[in-house]
Amino acid sequence: MLFHGLTNCPQQFDEFARLLHARGENVYVPRLPFHGHKNRLTRAIGNITLADIEAAATEAARLGAGLGATVNALGLSLGATMALQLAQTGGVNNAVGVAPFLMVPLIPRGPGMLLMRALAWLPNRFLWWDPRRKEQMPPVYGYPGFWTHCLARCTFAGDAIIAAADRAAPRAPRCTLVINTQDPAVNNAAARELAASWHAHGANYELAVWDDLGKVHDVIDPSTYPAARTRVYPRLAALLES
Fold it and tell me: Is 63 in contact with 28 (CB distance < 8 Å)?
């Protein structure tokens, strides 16, 4: 199972999915709730809830179980959060979370959660990912902006995983957290906190720190990051096989 990122759609993983399928894997790339609408400026994504995110991950694992003897999950950003949820709660044999969106960048988890709760309480506002390019921002199948309630609820999903990891060991036999040290869009300190909780429980999990990807968040889609084919795909495929 491949989970795409926030405001993107399954097309983000098209090339990587085909690569895995050519190697003999059955591949399922679900469309996340309220994503992939033809109207790139849709308000629908602003309605996403923590329950929607968790239910989408659980349902994907249920469907994925019918596609093979073992189920592996890999995701980027919000998709990584969903893969890590399945690692924590069970339902997958191997999970790979790439640049998980657990908290907004540059803010410690505690103050960050206070800010996110405030955003969830305040009126829902639309913000451009790139205020200069606005609706011209690629890719053409992703949304060029996001709603503040959506941002807050996605961090709630990440915080729920960190809290669960504080209490108990993850259930998946194996998981890898992939951190891009130059990622401008996620909070790597939160990912390290999650990894530390796993290790405290003696879990067989790995923290992969990559410093050669550049200052980019979407390291999956070659239409916006051509280096994905050579710098990312081979390493991720190896992590899924391990």
Answer: yes
| Helix axis angle, 50-64 to 78-89, nearest 10° | 70
Q: What contacts 162, CB < 8 A, 6 or more positions away?
A: 102, 109, 190, 193, 194, 197
Strands 205-210 and 174-180: parallel
List, for the chain, all residue ranges whose pLDDT scores fall below the cut of 70.
242
Identify the burial level of 39 via C-beta atoms within 10 angstroms of its C-beta, where 0-12 means exposed, 13-18 middle and 19 or more buried: exposed
Q: For the chain, first and last CA: distance in Å?
A: 16
Half-sphere exposure at residue 185, Cβ-oriented, CA atoms within 13 angstroms: 18
How many other CB atoms are there within 10 angstroms of residue 108's CB atom? Answer: 12
Its pTM surpasses 0.90: yes
The one-character DSSP state at 46 is G
Burial class from Cβ neighbours inside 10 Å (0-12, 13-18, 19+) for residue 179 reads buried
- Over the stretch 115-174, which tens digit does the pLDDT of each residue have? 999 999 999 999 999 999 999 999 999 999 999 999 999 999 999 999 999 999 889 999
Q: Which long-range contacts (CB under 8 A, 24 or more apart) does 66-72 make?
A: 67/26, 67/28, 68/25, 68/26, 70/94, 71/1, 72/1, 72/96, 72/240
Question: Looking at domain 25-178, what is its CATH homologous superfamily?
Answer: Alpha/Beta hydrolase fold, catalytic domain (3.40.50.1820)
d(CA 160, CA 170) in angstroms, rounded, equals 13
